Records
---
Amino acid sequence: MIYPKSFEEKTGFDRIRSMLKEYCINQLGRKQIDRMRFRTNFELILKLLNQTEDFRQIIISGEPFPQSNYYDPTELFKKIKPENTYIEPEELKELWLSLKTIDKIINYLRKTCKDGHPLYPNLFNLTEGINIDKEIFKRIENIIDEFGEIRDAASKKLKNIRNEKESSFKKAQQKIDLILKDVKKKGLISDDLELTIRNGRQVIPVPAIHKKLIRGFIHDSSATGQTVFIEPEEVFEINNNIRELELAEWQEIIDILTKLTDFLRPHFETLKKGYRLMGIVDSIRAKALLAVETGSMRPKLVPYPVLNWVKAIHPLLYISYKPQNKHVEPLNIYLDKNKRILIISGPNAGGKSVCLKTCGLVQYMLQCGMLVPMLDYSEAGIFKKIFIDIGDEQSLETDLSTYSSHLYNMKFFLKHANNKTLFLIDEFGSGTEPLIGGAIAESVLVKLNESNSLGIITTHYSNLKAMGGKIPGIISGSMLFDSKNMKPVYRLKTGVPGSSFAFEIAKSIGFPDDILNKAAELAGSEQINLDHQIQDLEFKKSELEEKEKQLRSAESFLNEMIDKYENLSGELQTKKNEIINEARREAKQILSTTNKMIERTIKEIRESNAEKEKTKHVRAQLEDYSKQFTQKLQEESPKKAIKKKPEYEKASNGISIKQGDYVRMKGQSTIGEVIEVSGNQGVILFGDIKIKAGLNKLEKMKVKKDKHVHTDTSGKVKYSFDINKKASEFSTDIDLRGKKVDEALTLLRRYIDDAILLGIGKIRILHGTGEGILREAINNYLMTLEEVENVKPEHPDRGGAGISKVYISKK
């Protein structure tokens, strides 16, 4: 139950509905949006939310979804339902194209993961039992071509008629062309005159004075009567025959279309299911697009009444502020069966009514199956009834004053409220004498509390503020006000009532001091000062809590970094020890082998009594061993040594490129060697990869002097990466959602380096929306890179603020 009837207008949901209809592609989707209503069934609401969340993921992924040739065939089906009716060619074209779109939608939603499960399970279920018979496509495509024109081969009879018509037309054209030349030759008409059309036939424009000289049928004359338009007698009969063939052609087309319509008629129910799917998907897409626009999420849905919202915002306010980059203060609110009613007080224009309308609109959106603008770990419950008393309902027709209308609403609330009701009342008790109005409001509030309803009210009345915390189930809340800077903070703080700050606001707008002083005397300065001190303390407490939260976050981040540093340091020390131990083992082995070789050599020399030939032979063996050992060191050292990349600079302009030169692709930094030149083409070796490119796309490079470049025995520079493999495996999208800030930045640094190396000009970073912490950290890092030219949010249709497009300079 929703109360009053003007609920949607009062909360702004009528504007939400209008926005959804604008997002729809065609009338089928708009009809579904018109049918959207407040639901109370938990399973149904959850299903609707899951469907929209699935489509939100499609949008965020950037994967194209079929969204052309949406068509509403409702009137067409009504028209061709009776026997002996037929579909017009243009209607057939619309039907054919839209059926192809439905088939694409079905195939898209039935896509599966590698494990065979549906990729979008909640949308997959919509396609159950819907299959467009392939014979329908075959029959239609046999009749019309890709432009929607009736094919000559649609029937044998139609083909014969068109062939005969074409032959007759050519014959008529030849005759009338000869006649035209003849009358021009005789000087009956000027040489610059040409054939024209009258009544669908070709005619010759002839001066009226010569009309008797040309035999034929006069179809028309000019406005002055000086020119007549004559169809020559020689082509008159041929044209009559063409007209008869045209009529026969159209009759045959009607027969063809009638037979096709008779074939389609038994399939109407299946086709209607397909078009219903198209409308439902269109409406879900619209809801998902609005969710992306407003940063809406799917909260944790529970089947009982509860509000446990974290950082909820008013979607219309967010959309209004977005172009101006203005901040919308989020709302944190908690109501359950123990803390049922929240009494919000605070300054005028401090956000009380916005808070109230946010709760009404967001809860209504949720129970209409829409994603809502709050964090996804928020908990949202289901209410059977939502009642609001917002704004002025006075009416001359029903003789209702402002206060009478409020009383009428309260009467309805008291009669119908129960433990599954959410009520929202703005400026509770206002509109009449404050003492009496406050007393009545207090009595009503006690009764509503006894009904176990959940509710939020706003008020300036002290007696209502005092109820918070004193009566079980009722809590106080205030909209914070910065009394130092004299401006509202628009932040809700539960636990304490708020001040109206009437004196401060009056003073800030230049209200006369003498009047304010007199008012302070009447109100009592002690009460005013106490009220202000409580508010100031609450505001400062809120600021301290926020700073404490930031410090805890920073401390957690710092501890995490310290742990990672210590782990990395330990790993490096371990690796260092392993390398040193390995080197010692190798050194011992080498020393042992060398000593043995030397001892054996000395022993052999001694045993041979320093015989010349034997000594020479033994020395040769020792030298050979020395060479083998040296060669082994040379082979192994490049594998263990850290290779230093050579430094290059651009060679002078005008120098031709030849085999053996070092070059780079224009706009790139990777250096390669030219191994072949043929005409204006060259083959360049980048590491182990050969690439063919035009010489005009290359820049000749030379090694900077006094720089040591590690080369192999052939002089070729060695690189430790496979550029072709990197290029083939590189994706222009990187998904950092769910990553911690430091982890995400580490991955992003490597990704950006690869993008720059490969000369990629544009990439997309998927970071999600959430609280915006990861997005801000990523954007701050990107702004430090010289290579990054620009960073923009993705289009709302393809992910919006949840995706950043990064443009990288190729210079």
Note: The mean pLDDT is 81.
---
Amino acid sequence: MMDTVQQAKPETPSKTVDRFFQSIGWKPFRFQRSTWRAYRDGSSGLVHSATGTGKTLAVWMGPILKWLSENRDRQKWQPKRPPGLRVLWITPLRALAGDTEASLRQPLDHIGLPWKLESRTGDSKASAKARQLKRLPTALITTPESLSLMLTHEKLLEQFKQLEGVIVDEWHELLGTKRGIQTELALSRLKKLNPKLRIWGLSATLGNLEQAKQALVGVEPANSDNDNAVGTDSVRIIEGYRKKRLHLESIIPERMESFPWSGHIGIRMVPQVAEKIESVNSTLVFANTRSQTEIWYQQLLKQRPDWAGRIALHHGSLDTSVRQWVEKGLREGALRAVVCTSSLDLGVDYTAVDLVIQIGSPKGAARLLQRAGRSGHQPEATSQLAFVPTNAIELMELAAAQDAIRAGHLEARPLLRKPLDVLAQHLVTIAIGGGFHSDELLREVRTTQAYESLTDIEWQWVLDFVVRGGSSLDAYPEFKRVERTGDFYHLTQRRIQTSHRMNIGTIVSDAAMHVKYMKGKTLGTAEESFLSKLKPGEKFLFAGRLVEMVCVRDNVAYVKRSKGTPDTVPRWMGGRMPLSSELSEALRHKLHEASQQKLTGREMKALKGLLDIQQKWSIIPQANQLLIEQIKTRTGFQIFLFPFEGRLVHEGLAALIAYRISRDRKTTFSMACNDYGVVLQSPEKTEIDPDTARSWFSTDDLMADILESMNCTEMAKRQFRQVARIAGLIQQGLPGARKNARQLQASSNLFFDVFCQYDPDNLLLEQSRREVLDQQLEATRMHSAMERINQSQIMIKEPPRVTPLAFPLLVDKLRERVSSETLADRIARMQMQLEAAAAETEK
């Protein structure tokens, strides 16, 4: 009788993946399995799920399962000869690459997959980049900038043709930005190289999913005549967990002042915040600006000196080594708390974080939800967030944000249309990376949502710009970058290739200087506009330390440790976020409820005293009302308007209304704005009736009046610096020879003036003006707000005193001409007088 040897059947790919999930204590969710099947079937798509619910594994296991199904015989796996490039993972922040790599490596190691996984970002070593130019790994983690850089290397194109899938992480962070459009253009090139390419995006907290999907995958396949191309009908939106368990609470001050002002509560809440941190193992403390993180970190250490070494600081201007140390401490649970900005909004997994504390309003429901999700970063865990108001009215913002989250009204990301500076940069990139034929590249570019409506005239203009600098720069050889041979465009000059590669990307900020000890390490970077104003000996908070300016040399600010109190705190550009339109609407609804004596939740009940005074002295505006208050103070006649439309809209409205009033009656105004309203101050009283007020908000001749009322030419000139830098007109220079902000602005001003005089139809000029209107003034949102106000009831009141809603605007007005110490004393006296008057009214 012959013995029969029954060979064990090889494990199925599904069993292999299930075994991995068991090893980490999870079971695959339905949305994850749906994503794996869609990837297997050749589809592209967008996975939308709350933070911490397994989106990463939803997309990552798709390529792994596909490879396993094609390579079932483990005996044939060759770890020393890993497969070529199959997956490209695009992350919006290079700081996330390390965490992402660790997370993606986990299933590879557990399964024993013979894949090579690497990163390629601006932080990667030169030796690793050189090795990758010869052979790319099986899976590569990179950024939009590094991907564009790789497209300048013609020898990589053959490897990109073998690429099976691209995964774009945190797509909501790129959507509606020039970096997002840079990504769209790069994806269109990859689709051209491989029409069967799968493209998947990951997103949380996003309100316009269809637009996001379309921007990600494009409007049609790059080769529309190719039967193998993946059509847009095979594009999926896969919903995971939209509503993760969430617990929000406010840390409400023991005494709620009835006359609040911006920032006045903040530091007073340090003891309560420290108590909250003490109650859990690990906390992220989010502040909206880097300056606030520096202050809160110092104040928490002052409150609890024994926490030195157990709490840390994290923001984008700190040195990479410092940030990496903090991130490692978070992962390992070694830190009790980290005070941070949006630098930790994104990331893979900080499962050790038990609690998130938000200092001040996040100005948007989606951002609040995103940050809350950094705690309980596991599918079944509850995210915990404690909110610390910096002024009393911010409690109303939290109540409004909670309503918006419950209703699912998250902010949409408005999309950019046809930025020609990004397109010009892309054309130079492709010209270096093998060249292009005009008609073919135009068809490719039009497959992106951003350039779907690009006209032939615009295309020819951009081509002419990269070939000879356009009509006004034709005489200057340095602007002749791309060479044309018939209909073929390419770039062969070594100097221009190097310069382009060194300046590739769309991130434009004020020139930064390194901050370094005279003897020792680099602390990080701060903006030149701040550091250049400091005198030797001045003290400032930076990287959680009190340092003293010594000197500036070779674009480095040298400092030394100091003692005492700081003279200043660094100010970084872009810190002040306006209230989102969705949160503005929710806020107006909360006020409407309050006007009906309906105060729901702890936050609104805590504001009862403030709202009672507002109602007695004036009114609480309903959703269909615009409140205007007039009052005389010792500094002049004040007009307070309360549209509740966000700071940027109010800045535009203030200038517009002042212009329209002064056009009819000669007077001068000074003004201030916040997220809730506007104050206009004049030396004499302005007579107002509802019809007069309504005329201020007329949309007739709106664009012309905006251009007249604001120094839009100067604003466009500053915006043009960014456009010119991205388009390649001006260069930041090579490492060690970077131009400072003043040099860059001078160069861009020269081009701006030349174009205005000799090439007024220059499309980059037009773009810079449009960006000022759309981004700095939010002109579209302003127009919508004015239309809403025109349909509203105008309520004009002359209260006996400055009301609780008006008080923070009056304080902001005083800041312009009163020193900080004097201001605090002045405000305290004003508050005492108003509180006494309110108490008298109660009797």
Note: The chain has 32 helices and 26 strands.
---
Amino acid sequence: MELLSHPNKPLLIHLTEVAHVAVDSIKRKQLNLLMDFDEKETDISELITDLVYFSAAFHDLGKATSFFQHYILNLDEVHDKRKSHALLSALFVYFVSEKFLKANNVESNLAQLLSIFTFSAVKRHHGKLDNLGNEVFIEPEWRELLPELVESINNEDIQNLISLLLNDYHLKIEWSEFIQFIKEQTYDNIFGDFSLDFLSDTYQDIKAETRISLFYIHQLIYSALLFADKNEVIIAGNSQPVKQSGVIDKIAEFRVRNNFNQPKAEIDQLKNEAFYSSAEHLQKVFNKNQHIYSVTLPTGLGKTITAYNLADIMRNLVDFDDSKIIINIPFTSIIDQNFEVYSKILETTDTNVLLKHHHLAEPVYKATENVADFYQSKFLIETWQSDTVVTTFVQLLETLLASDKAKLMKFVHLANSVILLDEIQTIPYEYWETIRKTFKILGEKFNIYFILISATQPLIFTPNEDIIELVPDYKKYFHFFNRTKLIIKGKISFDDFETEIVDYVNNNPTKDVLVIVNTKKVARETFEFVCGEIDTENIETYFLTTFITPYERKNIIKRIKQKSDKQKIIISTQLVEAGVDISVDTVFRQLSPIDSIIQAAGRANRYNEKPEIAEVFVYDIEEYRKSSNYVYGNDLLIKTENVLKDFQIVEEKDYILLIEKYFTEVRKQSDNTSQPILKAIKNLDFALVDFELIENRKMESVYVQLNERAKVIWDKYVEICSKKELKPWERKAEFSSIKSEFYDFVINVPIPFDSIQIDFDSEKQFNFYVSQLEYPSVYYSFEKDDVSKNIGYNFKIESLLL
């Protein structure tokens, strides 16, 4: 009887197809895997393809047992753990890999380690990675079961299958030898020595750079297997080829369509100069062995398009067969905004040309006229099957600095890519050393090129050593502008802070004012006080925090940007600082780190369109310093105070001096900060490689039926949740069609530290508190016709820090 891997799927065909996809994902990449291991250099760039092949070709060999074959033909029956296949498959892959590497004269310790990498990858292709020292421990129960499993396999059938899969290799693998390997528990002695002697002792003396490289070699093998296995099951030969988009030409056409080459204002002339000079400079300074670059330009000088153009030039210079442009942005709101620009540049809606990936993006993958189904779309999007990918920092860094197999599926596709990180200053300094050391290895070994983009470039990398600036004489652009000036006001009571805002608004009726504070509590109190003290009949007032639904925030920002004869006052948290394209006359900013203050200044006189220099007042509100420390960390605020202490007024042309001085101090702090993720990477402790960019605080979600459409979407959600006949993944697939719009009406509220739930006036329904259209909750303030009343979730101010 023919062996099966899945219902009606022959095992040999599944293994052959998975191996083909896995090898193809690697062979198209140019890797530089010259390893300085145990004082001997070994190039495993070619061997890695063979190890990926063995891992993929035999990843399901354990399905040849009679126990699994009975299971696959009788899925409705109850089966014991003998149907499991991963451990037996993993041991066989180790057995093959070790013999192959020995035959190729690979140094014995390195051969052992790489063989165990293949073992780990196959063992966990359906599970969660553990630390490598734990992975090689085989539980006593399995040691007893393994001989029974190998005895249940037909020797002739399995030997024929092995011979067919190794037909292209001069490698003789006898099934009978493997049976002996299992029955005598040879693996136990090998793995025990590896864990106790090599991993705990010898491995610790190997260079840190080599150990980081080895971590990513494991992830490459694992990723190639995960991707290929899922691809074969979900796509099954229906994959859409990634379509090269010719970005440079498309940008040139876009610039012509929008008359960018015929600048009228001085700022437009500067944009053009920065665009063309950086492209020319890249041609001069580019070196294939230099993998980390920067683009540093003030707000409003077109960093988005300039960096995209540079990425494609760089891609052409390296001339790899399979190279993506991966654009990473810190916030989903900015992704949607920038994605629209990229769509206009490329003039396409095809996902294999331009793809958007974040947790709320619509899961529809379309290539020309073909639209993939939900499961195919989800897989193709999550594995970044596109020429240009627009995604979040979280998606990228959880792939590079974590071991979640769902995220790691895309890792194999990062090799040979150009990766842009926009607003790089938003990465916390605690991760700088980890990012510096891993990015350098990823560039060197996997030919990944990084471009870090910011108006406030942090010192993650040392300029002119680790990183090369692509904008020639970039400081002159900062010196040219004098759109804003910081006025350092120092410490102030909250009452006086509020009073100064009101006095300024009343004394300057022609000026639009933006107030940015550090917490929702301060924003709410400030808004209520200011609205009570000004003429709201003749002044437009707007409130912005994440306690207002995304639907409302989008509409409020749209209204702020519209021209009006009335004065505008906006009270907000720092959510307006990055990527929100508004321009006011004056900013009041609660003390925050220097880069955040500069970002806030970028919301004033943005296009140099105001009649005078915009003032940016900076205050340290005494009563709320503790909560500011919670948001930013006391260390960064002290460094900011130290930088600002010698200044009363700082003009924009001098901002670059503040930025450099500030980040020099932050770099010192970073260099003295422990790096637990980097340590785990170097020790191959996969379970401890667990990056989290967003703090994991307990939240509860509120759905707000703001309008009829929101009610319809909620009713659809309830209908989906109520279908008891749906399996969880079917329910998820059905929800995906409304997910993006659904979350436009959702806010997430932190549970107060002294409570077990948030304040609300009704019980949860299907995991959400609901403010109904007909019976709005008293805990959510919204008026359709008066945006000044829209302050969102009404918390007990005393109980909530944020």
Note: The radius of gyration is 29 Å.
---
Amino acid sequence: MENKTYPVQGMHCASCVAVIEKALSKTAGVHSATVNIATESARIEFDPHIISESSLAERVRSVGYRLEISSEKKSDMDMSSPQHNHMNMEREDEIMKMKLKLIIGGILASFIFFGSFPEWFSFMPAILADRWMLLVLTTPVQFWVGSQFYSGLKLLIRYRTADMNTLVAVGTLAAYFYSAAVTMFPLYFMQGRLAPAIYFDTSAIIIVLILLGKYFEVLMKGRASEAIKKLIGLQPQTANILRDGKEIEVPVRDVQVGDAIVVRPGEKIPVDGKILEGESEIDESMITGESMPVHKKVGGAVIGSTINKFGAFTFKATKIGKDTVLSHIIKMVEDAQGSKAPIQRLADVVSSYFVPAVFVIAIITFVVWFFFGPIPSFTFALVNFVAVLIIACPCALGLATPMAIMVASGNAAGKGILVKDAASLEIANKINAVILDKTGTLTRGKPQLTDIVAFGNGNRNEVLNFAVSLEQRSEHPLAQAVLQYAASIDQKSSHPLDKAIADEAKKESIEPYALEEFKAIPGKGLRGILRIDSASRVEAYVGNRALVADIGLDISAYEDDIRELENEGKTVMVLIVGKEVKGALAIADVLKEESIEVVRALKARDIEVWMLTGDNDRTARAIAKQSGIDNVMSEVLPDKKSEKVRELQEQGKIVAMVGDGINDAPALTQAHIGIAMGEGTDIAMESANVTLMRGDLRLIPEIIALSKRTMVVIKQNLFWAFFYNIAFIPVAAGALYPFFGVLLNPIFAGAAMAFSSVSVVGNSLRLKAKML
């Protein structure tokens, strides 16, 4: 099976979507087809062994639309690509043509309106009131300005289906040809001595008003898709690579995996890679949403399209083209914008029957008014027939959901939140239980030195110095935590231990003793001989309780201090120097700074918060207590995580799972919403519905809030779209005339139709303003 997204031309309303989806779904070899009017695209899952792309295009063409197989949407598309430039030029050309037609149509329609009511505008030249002049002025408006609406007639005649354009074309042509017939054969239509009315103004002004609405709609759609344009525009055009010892500039598309690339201050990083030489501060805000530059050194990963702020460096390209982080982001945003939320199904079902139903209502209206209406009955019947056709607006129904999804997902990407599909945006606001994986999600994911305790008359700096001396040859993660802290002592750091021993550290710098006869004792600790000075050497140990027991020392005097640290879920290492217990060091995977704040925010929304971990219950509950989490799932094996998610789901909970590791992938897939941390594994991100690019837990409440705002806007759009059509179609049919003598002028019907679509798009754009 292949799953591809193609541009589709010729769509104008929700009924177009229904026609194309129905045609593709009934085609052999097509597993599923999702058409989106907001992005003007079709995502098709098909078996290439059964049906070819050209056959798909032919099937779409057979129902009156054009599927561009040569322009399959590419996530790795750059702004300079011929394909992208062609799509931009087509869009700009469409806008310019519509603008020209609006200007000329508006001028002609104004003269037609003035000439149609000479009793109101006596200052206008008498020739404008001549019916032949009105026919001449209306004809270019009808057939040139309104030419795009005649695709609807092609659908009706050739394919026996209809869309919004069919309604407009039939309605305006009915008014135009009737008026033309009256102008050419006035005696035939004469009733008594009264000349019949003409409706050139009706057809001309309706066309201009609806075209004006379409023009605003196209402009607003451009604003809604700005997020994708900005992402595509981030990619640099060239790269400076080293080949045969020389630096040469090449187009980004020519960069190969393994190339050494030079980046200077202020330049964009061309592709993803790892630093080989040098270090710098890199602005990754366009990818992660994080405003502060990130320090990168040798071995550090860099992301294509981010900006090098200060230092120069050389890096090796590891991912190019469609494999880069930026390309994945663009693809996820495109997929989200092109997908459908479950709530849209109702609108799609209604829209599929909408246009045929409107034609039936219009014909019934004409028949009823012609046979039972007042004199002149034909005039009443024609006016109301046109009003019904013109006022019906499937566009508003079709745009209600996809426009809101398009705006919300695009702007979420700008904040570092990648939403995989529209369904996730709909479900997220219903979440009532969040499961947070401990390691790497709630916590930083790597051990840190948290406490230094000196026993007797010693001080913490002395304890640290001895520990660093012993650990300097060890590769163990606990040893690395001690060494990393010692290395950061002279730097500005947010390390949790800094405040505790900063003053002592400043008084006496860390100067490790020479280490001899180093030995790692598996599962227990380290042993070594430290050379204090040229004349003295001392045996020293650092390790756990088992090591202390092997040595035969009594630590009961320090038991309370050690147990207190262990009860906080920390790993305690006891330092022994010359058969004397000098102190203890505690190491733990510490909470992220925002964890407590996020847990509190989720609880405030009445959402149950659970912590999931493979750690022992004591450690798990210690971390949970620190973060304010009441519900703990501890000692859970990796392959059992998804079962824990299922247990909550069986209790009726709508569950979000937040994780970052490969072992979290099954649980992320099982949950209603899987949320992956951006610094986690690719497998976790592929399994999740949402990815937080900068791994900031504070984005979780933001996802829920965004979902709620999006659903409010979608429901508003659907309500007004349904309300508009349900309320005004009967009015257009003349339902109020028997009671109040009120009929709806087709011109006002055209204005209302144009406004309904524009209002839906405008309401969706409010999501963009709320996220700034």
Note: The chain has five domains: 2-73, 85-235, 238-327, 417-443+591-702, 445-492+507-590.
